[in-house]
Amino acid sequence: MDSIIEERILLEETFYVLTKKSNIFKVRLTPKGLHLIKDSEQNVKEQVIYIKDIIGCQCLRSKKKANNCTCQSLPRSDSLQVVEENSTDSDDSDSSAYLYIYAYVIQGNKGAAKKRERTIITLRFRSFDKYDDNNKEAQRWRCAIKKLIKGEPLNISALSEFNLTTRHRETRRLLVLCNPKSGAGKGKQIFQQKIAPILNEAEIPYDLHMTKFANFARDFVRTQNLFQWTGIVVVGGDGIVFEVLNGIFERFDWAEAIKSIPLGVVPGGSGNGLARSIAHYASEPYLPAPTLPAALAAVRGTSEPMDLVRVETMSQILFSFLSVGWGLLSDIDIESERLRMLGGTRFTVWSVARLLGLRSYKGKLWYLPSDTPISKPDDRFASPINADSILDLPSEVHLETEEGRPRVDSWYSARSRKSAYFSAGGSSYQSTTDSNLGDTSSSGDKNRRMYGPASQLPSLTSPMPDNWECMDGKFVMVHASYQTHLGEDCLFAPQASLNDGRIWLLIVRYGASRAQLLQFLLGLSTGAHANNENRSSGDYIQLIPVSAFRIEPDMSESGYITVDGEHVEYGPIQAEIFPELGRVMVP
Questions:
Q1: Of 53, 201, 330, 521, which residue is the least packed, with the fewest Cβ within 10 Å?
Q2: b/e for 23-43, b at 16 or more Cβ within 10 A?
């Protein structure tokens, strides 16, 4: 039955290629996708552009030709120039309506790495003498495609009675928070050149805010009316994700916000662990275009639940999406900050330095195996701080496939370097001075109050229950993660998932040789370190799924403890997982 529905023809039209009039394209729209059927001298070929690969479509008009000038030194290009429907620069002598369909199609032969290539299908409607009639036909196709993209019910009879007052209207609006200094300092450029054009193709309106100081994003989501947006997209590294997440949990209405407003992550930092993990989870090609999965997720509007971890130190409560670390990897993360200009290479360089100057740390590690539950599902959103949190939450076809994006100064003005942002479909840009947020780096903490689900663990100063496992001694590192990747090239927990309800605890005890540690570090790029059969380090290195853990370092020593790569106070720390507490955009 499903196959019959998918093959049901919704719209059909015949197009021709002007340069080769013997080439006829029959174009069909079905719930499955756009079928391009080429009929040339009894040779019939068909290609399907699947709906899941189409992100949007626009109706455009041909642009008015520029007057020839006797002083013009270069001939004007005869390639098609188009403008928006209501543009005063349209060519009234051309009654055609152009439907531009934008798709990102996975390409790759057997054995070759798969990637997505941008494909534009241009359908020129000129069957009628008047532009309005041709535009009406193009708008029927556009409306149908838009509804299929969003998964909305489609009435064929309603399409046959289509009029211009029934055009598709986008109900979504995104908040984009961009850290221009993240990673190698290319956050702004990434948004302008990689994200804004795709949002424009999908006609998704957005409000863009550039961060200027530490905790700007955290203060923004804590104080603004988030419910005017249907999603938050962050451009930067894991640091800005950390800010946004904890800013949400500083709201009294955190329970409604965390469930109803999904988070999208555009990688622009040094690590990009969450963005890489989301692409891995969705089996989406990540390289050579790491920003593409996030952009596609944002325009498609699809999201999945994600586990979050509540972290408690002696002085604060935090919510974590990626990892908690003590020892070697945390040392590398924090101490390599001085090499930030190197991007992700900084971690490799500092790994060598820390391996030569190996350290160990005394302390106790407590953990609760994952098969021992710590909380009941009904209690997951209970909050001792805020009990009143809201919980309910045909004419011619021009087929054009190109690798990479068009030139910056092309008609795709979204990529223009002349502007700091692209405003499309009511989109707007706000600088930090327009956002009513001053530099609260010194005074913002006074207004902070952490809400969120109640802990099911004993207080940090209380003894642990008898059903917890305990390790006492010297450690090279203890690192916990709830995602597959800690960075773009660090497959930390191959068996992890976005919402498996487990913390993957990696324990490296003192006694492992430098050769074993080197093999371990090299294995992080492929996940080989997690394979017990191929590991020669014996019991010194263990990867254990747990529900909660506590680290009690010997306070006579100093070191680093990190949460999502952020430096926190050195001392006792405990963490517990809350399954499916948050939502992230997934391609």
A1: 53
A2: ebbbbbbbbbbbbbbbeeeee
